[in-house]
Apoptosis inhibitor 5
Amino acid sequence: MRHLAERPSFPRGGRAERRRPPRRQGALWRRGRSLPARRRSAKRGPSSGSGLGPVPGCRRRPPRTMPTVEELYRNYGILADATETAGQDAAVLMDRKQLKHKDAYQVILDGVKGGAKEKRLAAQFIPKFFKHFPELADSAINAQLDLCEDEDVSIRRQAIKELPQFATGDNLPRVADILTQLLQSDDSAEFNLVNNALLSIFKMDAKGTLGGLFSQILQGEDIVRERAIKFLSTKLKTLPEEVLTKEVEEFILTESKKVLEDVTGEEFVLFMKILSGLKSLQTVSGRQQLVELVAEQADLEQTFNPSDPDCVDRLLQCTRQAVPLFSKNVHSTRFVTYFCEHVLPNLSSLTTPVEGLDIQLEVLKLLAEMSSFCGDMEKLESNLKKLFDKLLEYMPLPPEEAENGENAGNEEPKLQFSYVECLLYSFHQLGRKLPDFLTAKLNAEKLKDFKIRLQYFARGLQVYIRQLRLALQGKTGEALKTEENKIKVVALKITNNINVLIKDLFHIPPSYKSTVTLSWKPVQKADAGQKRASEDTTSSSPPKKAAAGPKRDARQIYNPPSGKYSSNLGSFSYEQRGGFRGGRGRGWGGRGNRSRGRIY
């Protein structure tokens, strides 16, 4: 088992060598246990570090004993006087071969073998004179490392606090590697010290610090890997631009791609948060790079298995990460095509990865959000037909009436407004690219059937819109913030959206000019001359308040009851978006046992 001080600072080798090694048993290190004897003998001999042997002509020194507090202070004084005289120039001390100075520093290094008082002093004195004795660098770092592993928490904290002073030159990546492993501490004060130490060496050499962090992310124990990733996701955004240069951001992207070869779902989300926050990836080409990364993670070239919850989960998580990246210049075509060809035909057989999630609605909402940014599609007519057929499933024909005009059946069809909003919006967006689909691509009988369904749905829609407006009439401020009224506000948004889209399709020929804002997205001000997205619910409900629309993560389903234009307004059920928020470690099946380096 390798010790943390001996870990390589950077991942080496090509793709094959970057594959994570078999899981080692136990942690890399444990507090309260001595460092392996192998490391002591390898690191602390007189010829370690720079390779210099004993000073010629000097007598062999007697075996060292543990220094007392008085001896530590005395030797500290010798070194303090010498460094003041030498003007802080380490070369002066070494060139004169003043053995007593080296011996004085060795006494301080031996302080780590003493009691609690000696260790506390050693933790402060070792880093103070570290730069003056480069040939004892390894011994000094190892001595400080012993203190970082001490049983006494106060000694550990003092030793960790001083670690950044060792981060000079080639030692910095090694110190970053050590600090990254120390993130596994469960002591909150100690953990904060490690975070602060990492941030301080980030400002000395960001690339070197990242090398130590990514070394542990790629090769470290699970707890270290997890905390290193979270450190990056929370702390990178706090660093100033002069630290996160373009070169540093390119290094982050390169190393992140290596990590993304083997990640869990939660880790993937965190890395997308890291990468999407980089300034160099805010451009169109940068966003396109991120979309390609997500598409690779989503395995869009593979056959979709609707009965595999991990397969479904992976697609949902990846698509959620891709949606914010799409724009008029960064197209969603590849994802929309995959959803139309592979997901929509299997919508009813999807296996939900999270209990309580309406997986079908979740998929339809993602498709609706992406459809606005779809570019030129190779099989547009075929995919539009699949989308149209799925829309028909949720737009029932009117029930047959008996001779007396009463309903011949037992119940009216159930109008699923939330599903129809998504499907109708997606069809409306893609239909713009093939405006003659309803007139030239459908036969007269199918078009007639579709208009009957639209008309029946629109009649029911008008009833619910009137009821919702009546229920919300006169309500302002706090009254709109009750759970019941928030539900009604969103329901009114959904029904208004559907109403606008149906009116467009009733035109001869069908029109695709209206613009609506999906009910779960914040309302944006309409441009001058542009049709309103949907009607306001009340004059006092600002568009970006919670009452006017749910946050992105709040899933609301409006299912009006069956029965002809019932006065009952139906019900919502709140669903949380995200397959990994219920617990840790669930993501895509874990890591490390798939031939491609990823396991979902």
